[in-house]
Each structure stands twice: as structure tokens, then as C-alpha cells.
Amino acid sequence: MGEVGDVALSREPVVVRQAQAADTASMAEVHVRSWQETYRGVMPDAVLDDPDAVARRTRFWNTVLTDSRFSDRVAAVAEVGGAIIGIAMAQPLLSAEPQQLHVLYVLRTHHGTGAGAALLDAVLRSDKPASLWVADPNPRAQAFYRKHGFVADGNAKDEDGVREIRLRRASS
After folding, report:
1. Is 169 exposed, middle or buried (0-12, 13-18, 19+ CB in 10 A)?
2. Angle at 53 between CA 83 and CA 123, to 5 degrees
3. What is the model's pLDDT at position 161?
4. Who contacts 172 (Cβ-Cβ below 8 Å, separation ≥6)?
5. How many separate helices (H) and strands (E) can be counted in the chain?
6. 3-state DSSP call for residue 18?
7. What is the residue-wise DSSP string for 124-159?
8. pLDDT digits (tens, 9 = 90+) for 101-143
9. What SUPFAM superfamilies does this protein's entry cite (predicted)?
10. Domains identified in the chain and CATH numbers
């Protein structure tokens, strides 16, 4: 596979499927590596370089995918050539609340391949309203979400030293 800038040139298609318990270790690696690629200078280095980060994310994903308390979550993975290159998780629409996107990460070498859009479609219904929190600054992610109909609603928060803004999308 060749690379141009941050975009991978792959002849293999992106395959998106429901996440399974057997995926947890690979999902954790993608989760942590994506944080390192995306949030250097935004999140504290101690968080990004924590030697236990992958083990903690593995436990997190194992709990999400196997514990009945999280059965309302929808999780998906994107693969290229059988290797997981992206992850997503959302909480579906409950009563009047919008769907909530909790996680969407794609490895940098696969940005621009359609993996992010396919993951978004796999975990959120476009005919229902949705919301998410995104790091600020994170211009690439914010542009991606704007392209998919999300707009800032004026709400912001600070979580673990990272400023986040809330984006919302009306149903289509």
C-alpha cells in the first residue's frame, strides 16, 4: 500500500461490520493509536503515552461488547484486508433524546478512504436526530461532521483538560 500525505492508497475495499467480542484487542489498539495521531498537543502526553492505555481500552471494549448494561450501544469496525482500521460506537435514539455518537476513529493512513463515513452510517440512523462531542480544536473531524450534516449548537465542556464542543444533526 502506498501513501500520499495522510491518505492511504489501497486497492482493498473498506469493509464495515458489527463489532464482536473477539475484536476488542484490535479495537483498543486502533483507539489508542488514533488518539496518539489526533490529539498530540491537545491531550496530555501522559494520557497518550500511558503504557496501560491499550489494556484499559481493551477492558473498555470488552465490557461494551459483552456486558448487558451496554446492550443499547451499537458498535462497528472498519477493516481493510482483514485488519481493523477504524471503530465507531453510538447509543441509539431513546425517547426524545437524539442518538449519541460516542466514538469514531479511523487510523490516519486510512483518512479519506470512506471508512469514517461508512462507520458513521453503520452506527447512526440518518432519519433520526443525533449529537456528538468533538475536541476543539480538531478541524479535520469538525469538517468531517459538518459534511455529514452536524452543526455546533453552542455547548462546550472541558473533559480531562480537553475542550469539546457539541454538534447536532437533525433527522433527514
Report:
1. buried
2. 50
3. 80
4. 126, 127, 149
5. 5, 9
6. strand
7. S-TTS-EEEEEESS-HHHHHHHHHTT-EEEEEEEEE
8. 999 999 999 999 999 999 999 999 888 899 999 999 899 999 9
9. Acyl-CoA N-acyltransferases (Nat)
10. 2-169 (3.40.630.30)
